[in-house]
Amino acid sequence: MTNTGIAGTPNLEPPAPLKRRLLLNRLMWVGIVALLIWAYFGTEMSFPRLFAGAGESWKLLFGEADRPGSGFFPPDFRRFPEYLEQMLITIKMAIWGTLLAVILGIPLSVLAARNTSPNIVVYTLTRRLLDFLRGLNEFVLALVFVVAVGLGPFPGILALAVHTAGILAKLFSEGIEAVDTGQIEAVQATGASPLQVLTHGVWPQIVPHVVSMTLYRFESNVRAATVLGIVGAGGIGFYITESIRGFDFRAACAIIIMILISVFLVDTLSARVRQRLT
Amino acid sequence: MIRLEQVSHQFANGTRALSDINLALSGQDFTVLIGPSGAGKSTLMRVLNGLVRPKSGKVWIGDTEISRAPERVVRLERRRIGMVFQSFNLVKRLTALENVLLGRLGDMPGWRSTLRLYTKADRSLAMNTLERVGMADFAWQRADTLSGGQQQRVGIARALAQRPQLILADEPISALDPKSSEQVMELLRDIQKRDGIAVLTNLHHLDAVREYAGRVIALKSGSVFFDGSVQRLTDEITRDLYYGETADDSSSHAQSNVPALSTDNQTGSPSFLLE
Ligand SMILES: Nc1ncnc2c1ncn2[C@@H]1O[C@H](COP(=O)(O)OP(=O)(O)OP(=O)(O)O)[C@@H](O)[C@H]1O
Ligand SMILES: [Mg+2]
After folding, report:
1. Which of A11, A201, A272, B160 has a CB 3.0–4.6 Å from the CB of A5, allowing a cystine?
2. Contacts of residue B25, Cβ cutoff 8 Å, sequence gap at least 6
3. Pairwise CA distance, residues A141 & B254, whole Å
4. Hey, what domains does chain A have and what are their CATH numbers?
5. Which residue stretches of B162-218 are H helix?
6. Probe residue for ligand 1, chosen from B34, B41, B201 as the CB with the greatest number of ligand atoms within 8 Å
7. Nearest-CA residue of chain B relative to A181?
8. Quick check: B133 pLDDT over 90?
9. CA distance B154 to B264
10. pTM of the prediction?
11. Is 0.90 exceeded by the ipTM?
């Protein structure tokens, strides 16, 4: 379709606002390409190096004939009971880390939801606190807690709890902001106190959301917990580092397989529960 | 006895919803509130139970003046005023019985209610009110699985569980079919007659108004346009009410029966967690 000018002659020039948008669009692409080039240098990225190693991959995976027991395959499950115990500890860490996060997250979410926060100052401060908690990586937190409370699963649990509390409180507060105000007003109209409005008007409405988000974060925490052992914060992660440092790749392979299976089982189970709820 | 004295209200965005309302709801009236859309009927009801704090004027619930009282005091008064809503507003994921028990919250200490430790007396009162509205068989059914008419009857039971002196019903039948509407209106009338609970309701159909009303209060542009027994509500008045000029003209049929007093300002709070 052509744009016809007032005098009847075809108007081939796009209108000014559209022209500005097109120009901005082009500038954006130039910017993106510049960013990618900038990010390339200093990272020692090298595709030739990746493919040069490909020929050796057979040896890497299955070992060399003159060095028995080298390579990743076949996996070495001789210490299976020990691995299993550590895998279960890893899952226990995720359970308690998530639970503590929920306990911390629920009151925080009330303060961080626009419709339940007592005032704008508390609201803003809580939001910033949650941003901060979410910004702290579990791994970094684990390092800090190892220093604070010593090695073992406990610092791992604390690390998961703090990071997850920030995430869950934000997600819960979104649930609170989406509640049906009619139901809230009806509870208020009975003469209920603010706390009772929360426990009897808001809570029943957000339960499915809370449970579903909690399970979702639990799945993610099981994955995160598998590597916390690398910094001494408990669980199976320690055994991965240990076996790789000792060049016992077949043991490492067994552990990785166990992690994959456990994560798969936890995800499937938890996803099934979440589906039931909605 | 509930009285409004020179009540005016303006929302934060500048909308003037009520101007200089004087009325008294005494004892056992079945009062119907009418008026065009936007006249301030819902706002008036929310002023009566303190959910909206009027900008000026006084709201007397018995001997307590609530327009400037602390939230805690308003809450205590609110327990004796039940509210029924157009969209029922049951807490959807709770059972019918649990919804009726919400009517007991105001009289429960916080920790008991948090743990849902309702007393035996409260539970049997809730069950009795469900029976009163003909919904005892549905006590254990989740609210969102009930039909509209059934939900509204549970809503009335919730109001009754408060042991109210007044029930405010904001368009209780607007979302219902004719048969359910009739059931709900008969129920409200029966509650007013037998239990001696004053009812203030807001209806859109004049047929229903003539059928159920004892007293009629008409609002137009936030002012009382007519206040009197339903027999005095002529066709001419209703025509003026819905199709006439704005209420500011001299044709108002209202009679003020409350003496004027001094006024003061008080704004409501936006968050329900605010004290
Ligand atoms: N929370 C609010 N903020 C701002 N303005 C409001 C608010 N609630 C109501 N109003 C305005 O106040 C006026 C009166 O509203 P109200 O809901 O009381 O009318 P109503 O008589 O109940 O009307 P309807 O019959 O349509 O329900 C309207 O102009 C409305 O837009
Ligand atoms: Mg209304």
Report:
1. A11
2. B1, B2, B3, B31, B48, B166, B198, B200
3. 71
4. 80-277 (1.10.3720.10)
5. 178-195, 206-212
6. B41
7. B89
8. yes
9. 39
10. 0.81
11. no
